[in-house]
Amino acid sequence: ILNVEQSPQSLHVQEGDSTNFTCSFPSSNFYALHWYRWETAKSPEALFVMTLNGDEKKKGRISATLNTKEGYSYLYIKGSQPEDSATYLCALSLGKLIFGQGTTLQVKP
Amino acid sequence: GAVVSQHPSWVICKSGTSVKIECRSLDFQATTMFWYRQFPKQSLMLMATSNEGSKATYEQGVEKDKFLINHASLTLSTLTVTSAHPEDSSFYICSAGQGGNPQETQYFGPGTRLLVL
After folding, report:
1. Contact: B102, A95; criterion CB under 8 Å
2. Closest alpha carbon within chain A to B111
3. How far apart are CA B113 and CA B93, in angstroms?
4. pLDDT tens for residues A2-59?
5. Interface A:B, Cβ pairs < 8 A
6. Angle at B43 between CA A84 and CA B20, to 5 degrees
7. Reduced to 3 states, what is the DSSP secondary structure of residue A94?
8. Interior/surface letters A59-81, b for 16+ CB within 10 angstroms, e for the rest
9. How far apart are CA B40 and CA B103, in angstroms?
10. Is B89 exposed, middle or buried (0-12, 13-18, 19+ CB in 10 A)?
11. Cα(A96)–Cα(B48) distance, rounded to whole angstroms?
12. CA nearest B93: which of B66, B114, B116, B65?
């Protein structure tokens, strides 16, 4: 069974801080890596789909990188805002999605 | 665009009853729909994949006779938990894909929390 690991499990930062978290996976043999943002009582929202080693994607203050050779992806949030508070999920697509447990971010005003 | 709804958002039922959960793609046609389950402090786990008009494909360890999936149209899939027991209490969430491409984004519903007493 392939394990997708996310760290840290949770994170508390002050408004304005920049932060990053990690998604690790043991295999380079996958179709894509997905990042989702999941706010409480809402649907997970797709952030990025990454496919190639060295991929970098950006959406406003959020960006992500992918290193398939060493088996990780980083998600960065620049200048965190309270509305960034959510759980961030990564998932590996092997034809089906294998999810990590998520990183829960709390941004304090 | 790409909105998926799910109903009900929560349900409490007695042991032995059946519960139906609906998943709808509101503004696109979903060739494939997925059903996931999440137990506390665990990751989302795929239960089954359904393609419109054909039988669902279940993941190992998921009982197909207990978790009935119907994908009768390109916008609706249902999951019925038959003869529910307390151990079936969990968070169930569906997602939908548009084209069957393994790189494509899956769009998620908001989930259904099931409590079986």
Report:
1. yes
2. A43
3. 9
4. 789 999 999 999 999 999 999 999 877 889 999 999 999 999 999 999 998 889 999 9
5. 52
6. 100
7. coil
8. eeebbbbbebeeebbebebeebe
9. 28
10. middle
11. 10
12. B114
